[in-house]
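dumping this here before i forget
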Amino acid sequence: MSADRPSLIRARLLKALAPCEVEVQDDSHLHAGHVGARDGGGHYSVRIVAEQFDGLAPLARHRLVYAALDEMMQGPIHALAITALTPDEAT
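structure:
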């Protein structure tokens, strides 16, 4: 199932935020043995570009991403690094 998680994360972000760009990277292999994720699972990086972020502070942008991922943040995702940009910031 963990191999499908990046695809599931991407699908949820696409549905909730309609971004013009979204990239999801599984960084789990970098964290093997880490407390809370001994097998290294559940570490991801997301780069997302969406108009919905316009006028929002970074914390508010991250909250939108967390809301889109909902219950995944309570289990399958142990850690999430987020880069959330507006289209103007991404150019």
